[in-house]
Design goal:
The protein is of the alpha+beta class. It has three helices and five strands; from the N terminus they run βααββββα.
């Protein structure tokens, strides 16, 4: 799948200090790029009543993604307490 990154996602990654989380985010991005559909990406869950918005769980962090046909847009990467305030 084609991947696109929003500025907000890039800013969120700069704020994360935990190397394990950053490595897992990198793995999730690579997994999304190599997958032909969302079923090929582990930890993906559709957000209820949110249309084409999904989240990927990485420990205490969540990655918010938007899916349009064969394109995955990485929108936010925040702690689980904060993600649902800013996404979707």
């Amino acid at each position: 799948m084609k991947t696109v990154f929003r500025k907000s996602f890039e800013r969120d990654l700069k704020k994360i200090k935990d190397r394990w989380v950053l490595e897992q985010v990198k793995r999730a991005i690579e997994e999304a790029e190599g997958a032909t559909s969302l079923k090929g990406v582990s930890g993906v869950k559709r957000l209820s009543d949110a249309g084409s918005f999904y989240r990927i769980r990485i420990g205490e962090y969540r990655i918010g993604i938007a899916v349009e046909r064969s394109e995955v847009e990485f929108v936010r990467c925040l702690h689980r307490r904060e993600i649902y305030r800013y996404f979707p």
